[in-house]
Each structure stands twice: as C-alpha cells, then as structure tokens.
C-alpha cells in the first residue's frame, strides 16, 4: 500500500472522504450524510459501488490522500470488509503525517465493541485470522487502527432520536472545522489578520441552517494594483 501522505506540494481535491461499509449503510445513512454535506456545500468523496466490485484499491487510497478530513462510519459489519480496514489504515497514516482530521461515527454499534473487538468485530477478525490471503502483520495493523480510531472524538448514533438530527450535527461540525482550517491556511500563507474576515465571508456564503441554493455574489475590494 502506498502510504505517502506528505503535505509537501499536496493540493486538496476533496474536503471530506467518507469511509464506510457499503452493504450496511450505503443506501441509508451514508447516502443521506453525503447529500447533506454536498448541499452545505462541502466537497465530499463517496465511492461508487463499481469501485468496490473491482480489485484496484488505488483510486480510493488516492482520494483519501487528497482529502482534508475523513469521516469513518463504523457499522455492524464494518470489520468484515478488508477494503474498509485498509482505507482506515491509510486514513490514520494521513492523520499522523498530514494532520488529516478524522471523525468516527458509531452507527448502531457500541463503541466498546469496536475498540475491544467484541461480537461482530470479534467474528470478523476470527475470519481474517483464518484467511490465508491476509498477512498476520496486516491484520495486526487493522486491529491497531480500530483501537486508535475509537479513541478519537466522534458520534454514537444510539444517543440521537433519529438520523436527521445526527446528520445535521455532523455536517455543522465538519463545516466549522473546515472554516477553521481555511482561516489557519490563510495565516500560514501570509494573509495576516484575515481570520475574522474569512469567517464573516463564509458565514454569508453558507449561513448555518440556511438555504444554500440561492445565488450569492461576493465583491472583494482592496488597494489598487494588488490583483
């Protein structure tokens, strides 16, 4: 697996990458989450089903490396997918080497089951241990990745009355984190004292809880000769 996640010269193609078990959540929760992100609008990557039917994982790993933030959706059968686990390893490598933000969602699953590999997760890893195609060190890496990911701050869907409320909270949190990243990037690029201006402009473009389908035009005025 190509684990290169160096920030040197890397441009972000996506703002959010969604890592999930398709059979569990694609047609339900993840589709609704993806649509909510896009409507914000946030540039999110959700793979097409045809990608997972092939043997080439490289396109998905590239999308991870080109994303600023990753959402990991843990569901009942998440660990049975080697693709999900390989993606998770890549996501955490990008977190360590490129400060990628990682947000876990425990969808209809107990976080302790994921962390301690109990119930469905225990069954999945018992199968991985028996699978001659999975190398022992790789499986060990998957276990470690699950432990690391579950220690991060995220959401437990069982604590919400419905998916709508949960998705709204996730999208708002992601949106705010991306604004903070944009502000920090502006300062790093020498745009001093632009933080408040960036916040104001983005709040006008994408008001929290507001309609985002209307056309908005922003005019930026500055000293002559700066363009």
TrEMBL record:
Q: Which domain of life is it from?
A: Eukaryota
What taxonomic lineage is listed for the species of origin? Eukaryota, Viridiplantae, Streptophyta, Embryophyta, Tracheophyta
Has UniProt tagged this entry with the keyword NAD? yes
The molecule here is called TMV resistance protein N-like
Family annotation (InterPro entries)? TIR_dom, Toll_tir_struct_dom_sf
Which GO biological process annotations does it have?
A: signal transduction
Q: Where are the transmembrane segments?
A: none
One Pfam family here: TIR
Every copy of the TIR domain together lies at 12-178
Keywords of the record, alphabetical order, are: NAD
């Amino acid at each position: 697996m190509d684990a290169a996640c160096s920030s040197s010269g890397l441009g972000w193609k996506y703002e959010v990458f969604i890592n999930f078990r398709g059979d569990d959540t694609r047609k339900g929760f993840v589709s609704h989450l993806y649509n909510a992100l896009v409507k914000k609008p946030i540039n999110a990557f959700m793979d097409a089903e045809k990608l997972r039917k092939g043997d080439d994982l490289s396109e998905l790993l590239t999308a991870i490396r080109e994303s600023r933030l990753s959402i990991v959706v843990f569901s009942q059968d998440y660990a049975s997918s080697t693709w999900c686990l390989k993606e998770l390893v890549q996501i955490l490598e990008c977190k360590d080497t490129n400060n990628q933000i990682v947000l876990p969602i425990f969808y209809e699953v107990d976080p302790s089951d994921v962390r301690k590999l109990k119930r469905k997760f225990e069954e999945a890893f018992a199968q991985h241990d028996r699978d001659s195609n999975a190398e022992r060190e790789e499986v060990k890496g998957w276990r470690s990745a699950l432990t690391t990911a579950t220690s991060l701050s995220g959401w437990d869907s069982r604590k919400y009355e419905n998916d709508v409320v949960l998705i709204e909270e996730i999208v708002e949190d992601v949106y705010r984190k991306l604004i903070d990243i944009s502000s920090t990037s502006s300062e790093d690029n020498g745009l001093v004292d632009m933080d408040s201006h960036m916040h104001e402009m983005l709040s006008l473009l994408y008001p929290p809880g507001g309609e985002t389908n209307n056309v908005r035009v922003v005019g930026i005025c500055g000293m002559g000769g700066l363009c």
